[in-house]
Structures are given as structure tokens and as C-alpha cells.
Amino acid sequence: MPTLNKKTIPFTLKQIRILARKYPTPFYVYDEAGIRKSIRNLLETFSWNQGFKEYFPVKAIPNPEILNILKEEGCCADCCSVPELMLAKGVGLTGESIMLTSNDTGPEEFKMARQTRAIINLDDPNHLRYIEKLAGLPEVLCLRYNPGPIKQKGRLTWKHLTDQKFGMRKDQLLKTYKQGMKKGIRRFGLHMMIMSNDLNGEHFVDTARICFDFAIELRRTIGINLEFIDLGGGVGIPYRLYQKPINMTAVAEKIRTMYEERVSNGDLAPCRLFAECGRLITGQHGYLVATVRSVKESYKYFAGLDATMADLMRPGMYGSYHHISVLGKQDKGPTVIYDVIGSLCENNDKFAIDRKLPSLAQGDIVVFYDVGAYGRGKVFDFNGKLRPAEFLLRDDGSFQRIRRAETPKDYFRTICGWEVRGEKLKRQEP
Question: Is residue 372 a contact partner of residue 322, using CB atoms and an 8 Å limit?
């Protein structure tokens, strides 16, 4: 039987009861101390590479208070849209501390990125000509690489890469770099991200190897020296108790060995390494707190919560697993099998199916683990569900509200010709 990981909660039932009196569940809680520790560990792990930077993907948890903490710890920001660029600028990040990594990119995104002098990571060979006409040539030409299927000695073939909409083929990269040189660009970068939520550290090592090999080829065939290589992210976390986290120290050491081999013969020196490890930094330090509304017995037991798939869509959409604890009952063994559900008019509005938990009753507080990345950022408002609040658990044990819960007035705000007055929706006067 595999050794089970121990998952912990940084707050108590008493603390949540007090908080919920003023701010009803559901809501998210983020552990500031855990987030700071995670980013410090990552930066220390790659400190051997002078100039290493973590470009935290804003989409993982788009809140300026969290982004400001990461900036304080030395993080940069990876953005995909105008609002995300605004978030990065809002916390004081400037210039090349911001990277735009998007796809099917719109003119407003390119324009704002150029205005902020951010690094722009191009996903399409046609984008170089497009951005030149739209906002002028970028100072740094960074391109996203999709290497396609690559056999890995019986371990992996990566056939899925041909179906990905992201990145360029090698021949497209070479052609676009040549075009950039002819247009007068003299600074170059490379980006590659092939995995998502991966717990096999060798994939991150493979990314580095492929990028290093391409960088050598680029220098020898075209004469371009890459200023940086962005290894992307995709590093997973152990959502399930039996899963083991990636040993990032071992991964970084393998990358370091490859890097030094190439530096020693002069093929890559000097070359900065970047990463975009969002889930690794914040994922395990976020919690969704909800309350049991009812326990229904039909063909099976259904535990109904005040949270729904609209608050955490990963289980319903992807079948993803999130561990669940019942506050105050952590020491009681699981005795009843439940489907843990929300109130959406969709049968896939389920956080867990056939999950064995302690016996539940109305009013019990349940906690979902590992929602600190791609949790609150993916909420939606189907069935008129209002988006939940977010709280930051500070180092001193206090809770800081960093996003309030939505109200019906928020829900109707963008509808033209109607307005909320008190608790009633009324047509606006002409």
C-alpha cells in the first residue's frame, strides 16, 4: 500500500465559524506563509543560474494582493490579456518583468504589451509582421516552440503535441528568427511548455534538453545567441494522498548538468533560464470553504453544499480530484459514501463521486484542498450563481478580505436598460 501524504489546514473550525458569521461561505482562503515559502524554494533551487526568473502566470490566481506578495518575493508576471497586464502593472511590475504569452492574440493585447515594454512571446509566425504594423517591432523576439512528437526511448512520444494549438514548428521558428534579424532585432528568447499538471519531473528536464539542443542549432545555423530560455510551467502538485511531489531539487540539478555541459563548450553561455510554475507556487496553499446544506438519501447519499461547480469547476469539467476534510471531524474515520454536490441544474455539478467521508450533517464545514491555482480564477455565473469571496490568511493568523463576494447588483450590472433597486430588478426610466 502506498505511503499517504499528509495534508494540513492552516486554520481551525473556530476561526472559520467566526469568519463565516460576517462573511458567509463559500469562500476561498490562501495561506500567505505557504505561498512565500514555495516561491523562495523555487528561486533557491535555480539560484545557480544567474538571472533566473519566475514569471508567475497571473491566470492561476488573478488577484493583485497575491501578485503583490509574489512580486515582493522576486517574481515577475506572465500575462495573457489586457486585464492581466493591468494587474501586473498595478502591483508595480514594469518592462521586462512582464511577459505576454498568449495565442490568437488581439490587437489591444499587443498594443498594451508594447506600451509597457513587456516581453512578447509570439505563438504564430504571422504575428511578427502583424505586430510590426500594429505597434512596432518588439525589442526582444521570443518565440514559442512546439517540437511535435519526439520519441523518448520507450518512455514518451508526446503525440499529443500535434493537436495542441500552441507554438510553432522548428522550421517556422528558424524562419521567424531569420526575419527578425533582417528587420534589425538583436535580442532573442525561446519559450516551450509541453505539459500541464505533470508529476513526472523528467518532462521538465526533457523541455530543457530540447530547448538547449535547439539553441545550439540556432547559433550554429543562423548565428543567433538566445538571451533567455523560458522552460514554461506545467509542474504538478500531489492532489491525491498517494501521489508524490516532484523533487525539484533533483530536476534542477539535471538541468544544471546539461546547462554546464553546453556552457563549457561555449554554445549557450550566457543564457538565463525562466519558468512559469504557477500551480507549484500557490496551488497547495489555497482552500475552498463551504457549508453542508442538506444530506439527501436517494439511490445513494448526496451531500449538498452551498458551493457549486460555478465556484470550483475542475472536478465537474475535468473529473479532477480534490481532497476534502470536514472541519472538527478530521480525527473521525470515513464511514459514509457520498456524492458531494452543488445546486446547479447540471448533473456534473459534483465535487466528488462515491467519496467516503465522516457522517455529514447540515451545517458542517467542509474544506477542499489544493485550489490555490486555477480555482477562483475559473469561476462562472451559470444559474445566476454569484462569485465567492477571497481571503488571505496572514502570517499573524488574521484574515484579510482580498475580494468580496458578488451581489445581485454585480450580476445585473452589465445588462443594459435594467437596474437593481434594493432587492428588486426594475427597468430603468427612459
Answer: no
